[in-house]
Design goal:
Layout: E1 3-10, E2 16-23, E3 27-31, E4 38-39, E5 50-55, E6 59-64, E7 70-72, E8 75-77, E9 79-83, E10 88-92, E11 95-99, E12 109-115, H1 119-123, H2 139-164, H3 212-218, H4 228-234, H5 240-251, H6 277-284, E13 312-316, E14 323-326, H7 344-348, H8 353-360, H9 362-365, E15 402-406, E16 409-412, H10 418-430, H11 451-462, H12 467-478, E17 491-492, E18 502-503, E19 525-526, E20 534-535, H13 537-541, H14 560-563, E21 567-568, E22 576-577, H15 594-601, H16 623-626
Parallel strand pairs: 1-12, 3-4, 21-22
Antiparallel strand pairs: 1-2, 3-5, 5-6, 6-9, 7-8, 7-10, 10-11, 11-12, 13-14, 15-16, 17-18, 19-20
């Protein structure tokens, strides 16, 4: 036995919609609950209102739940019967269930379900009890009331608070909560935290965007990115939605090139976030199409759109001024001629003479089993770069310039002044020659340039008959092969008949990438993908091949591929996503990054020298100050 349910409903235009269902059971549930076999969706009907069951003898039993009733053929009752062969009507709330007559021998019962249309049935149900119209205003008044409330709280009140609680200087005059704070998009950055209660320091005119003049009131040492005329020529023509954004911003006084395009404020108590890469790539992706005379190569993304590094390198210094040129790393022709003879491999060899001497001097200078990069390269106070090498403090630990001993005093040649060296040696022999130096301790090795070496250089001259001849021989020995000056410096040979030797000036560049910036602090510990962590000298050697450099002319700078092992573009799968702002400073500041200028303001004050044209006067740094 089964029930054949035929549900009839009507669309808004009066079209009849019929849904058929078959229930293979002799008992069905009727009610508002979704689990009922016949669901009647009306509040006047209980969740489980009634049951209809097929009984023997061709009868249907209709029973309402306790306390409820149904109408069977117009009679309200809690329980009743219908003859399936004759059919009948069952009314539950506003719904009418028609039991269609069933022919003899047919077991299935057909029921049509339709919502009643007579007003009499509807009037029996007080639907007003379930409506909110009697206790709430209409939708339209509520909407207008909400608009008025929002304007009053978030516009009128902040404007009143802004003018009422500010003095003539723009600073807040009243303590407590100011309603205009509701307009802020977030807390100020760390650098602007002191302006928390002085909004007018930047927002000078109400309802006008922050102008560059407000920024330049405090940031007086910041320069433009480039010449203004060239900047305007380099700006690309934006299209699509970005062009629409630009036009809308211009209408509200937000022209291109403003400070706030890069330096986004109200992002929380942190450093101002770096500039997005697109801000730079808009111009630099195809810069030469707008500036044909530019020397800058196109760049758009560090991972796949960046040119090879081109550091500024000293290629010659034989005249008054150094000759600096930009060379391309990785071409095999990038050579640096600093006029210094210094093989890194010789000093970093753990089994060489430099390592053995370092172990002997370990108690005085703190050397390890072999020389390390940090033994000579001392970081600047900020930790980003390294101080220029100083002969007396760095090289002098091993390379002595001693040439005479008077009592317990060791006399040394004047480093950096060839004329003074010649004068000191002539004065020595004018006084009768050097005293015999103190004997070296048993088993102690001579240091390069030590007293014993200088003594060997002048031993032959002491046998001469003339003191002048011996002085000339000593001077030639110092500036010739094996001498204290020759082994490290390029010697300028004297004119014929004279002994006026000279030394080619030595360059110590502290910055090769004039348009880039590199922070060594972040690379003290290096872990490349698939490799173990490296620190100390191993971290240095992972980028700078100093242990394999046998010539002072080797340019020990990493190439682009070496950096790309860890650094990718702004959206990359590599360990370090890198935007343009990570390595490049936007402002044109004569070679000194704005980052360094900001750190000086914070208390770090030191000198940065790209190339000293003349050697500085000797300064002695105690070993404790170097470590």
């Amino acid at each position: 036995m089964a029930f054949l349910i035929r549900t009839i409903s009507h669309s808004a235009d009066g079209r009849e919609i019929v849904r058929n269902a078959t229930i293979d059971d002799d008992l069905i549930k009727v009610g508002r609950d979704p689990i009922c076999d016949i669901r009647l969706n009306d509040l006047a009907i209980a969740l489980h209102h009634a049951s209809i069951e097929q009984l023997s003898g061709g009868r249907l039993g209709i029973s309402a739940e306790m306390g409820l009733s149904v109408e069977i053929n117009g009679s309200a009752t809690g329980f009743g019967h219908l003859n399936v062969h004759q059919g009948g009507d069952i009314r539950i709330g506003p719904f009418l269930l028609r039991v269609l007559p069933t022919a003899a021998g047919v077991d299935d019962v057909s029921i049509e379900v339709e919502r009643g249309e007579d007003d009499a049935a509807s009037e029996k149900i007080d639907v007003s009890r379930f409506a909110l119209a009697s206790v709430m205003p209409g939708k339209r008044p509520m909407a207008w009331l909400s608009v008025a409330l929002v304007l009053a709280v978030f516009l009128a009140w902040p404007i009143f608070s802004f003018y009422a609680n500010r003095g003539s200087d723009g600073a807040a005059t009243a303590q407590g909560y100011h309603a205009d704070k509701m307009w802020t998009s977030g807390p100020l950055s760390q650098g602007h935290a002191a302006l928390r209660d002085n909004c007018q320091a930047c927002h000078v005119t109400p309802f006008v965007p922050v102008q560059d003049d407000s920024c330049k009131t405090c940031h007086t040492g910041i320069h433009d990115h480039a010449d203004l005329a060239r900047l305007q020529r380099a700006n690309p023509e934006l299209g699509g939605f970005r062009r629409i954004q630009q036009n809308v911003g211009a209408f509200f006084g937000q022209g291109p090139g403003r400070c706030v395009e890069c330096h986004t404020e109200h992002e929380g108590p942190q450093e101002i976030p770096p500039t997005p890469q697109q801000f730079c790539s808009d111009c630099h992706t195809d810069l030469r199409s707008r500036l044909p005379d530019t020397r800058l190569a196109s760049a758009s993304d560090f991972e796949d759109g960046h040119p090879e590094f081109q550091p500024a390198v000293l290629i010659d210094w034989t005249g008054e001024q150094p000759n600096m040129q930009r060379v391309t790393v990785g071409t095999g022709q990038a050579r640096e001629r600093s006029n210094l003879k210094f093989p890194h491999a010789l000093h970093l060899n753990p089994r060489g003479g430099a390592a053995q001497m370092g172990r002997r001097l370990a108690s005085r200078y703190g050397f390890g089993d072999s020389l390390q990069c940090r033994d000579c390269h001392v970081p600047t106070p900020d930790g980003t770069r390294f101080q220029p090498i100083d002969m007396e403090a760095d090289c002098g630990m091993c390379h002595s310039l001693a040439f005479d001993q008077i009592g317990g005093t060791i006399r040394t040649l004047r480093h950096g002044s060839p004329a003074q060296v010649i004068g000191d040696l002539r004065a020595l022999y004018r006084a009768g020659g050097p005293e015999r130096p103190a004997e070296l301790a048993a088993g102690e090795r001579d240091r390069p340039g030590d007293v014993a070496q200088i003594r060997a250089a002048v031993q032959f001259a002491r046998a001469r008959a003339s003191l002048g001849a011996r002085a000339d021989q000593a001077i030639r020995g110092v500036f010739s092969q094996g001498g204290a000056c020759f082994d490290c410096h390029e010697i300028v040979q004297p004119p014929p008949g004279t002994l006026n030797y000279g030394i080619q000036p030595v360059a110590f560049p502290t910055r090769y990438m004039l348009h880039g910036w590199f922070d060594h602090r972040a690379h003290q510990v290096v872990q490349r993908p698939g490799q173990p962590r490296l620190d100390g000298a191993q971290a240095c050697a992972s980028c700078h091949n100093a242990p394999g450099s046998n010539q002072a002319t080797d340019l020990l700078l990493p190439d682009l591929a070496s950096c790309r092992v860890c650094h990718g573009g702004e959206a990359t799968s590599l360990p370090v996503p890198s935007t343009c702002a990570m390595c490049h400073d936007f402002h044109m500041d004569g070679g000194t990054p704005a980052m360094l200028l900001r750190q000086r303001v914070r208390g770090h004050r030191w000198e940065t020298v790209t190339i000293p044209v003349r050697p500085p006067p000797p300064q002695t740094r105690p070993p404790a100050a170097r470590r």
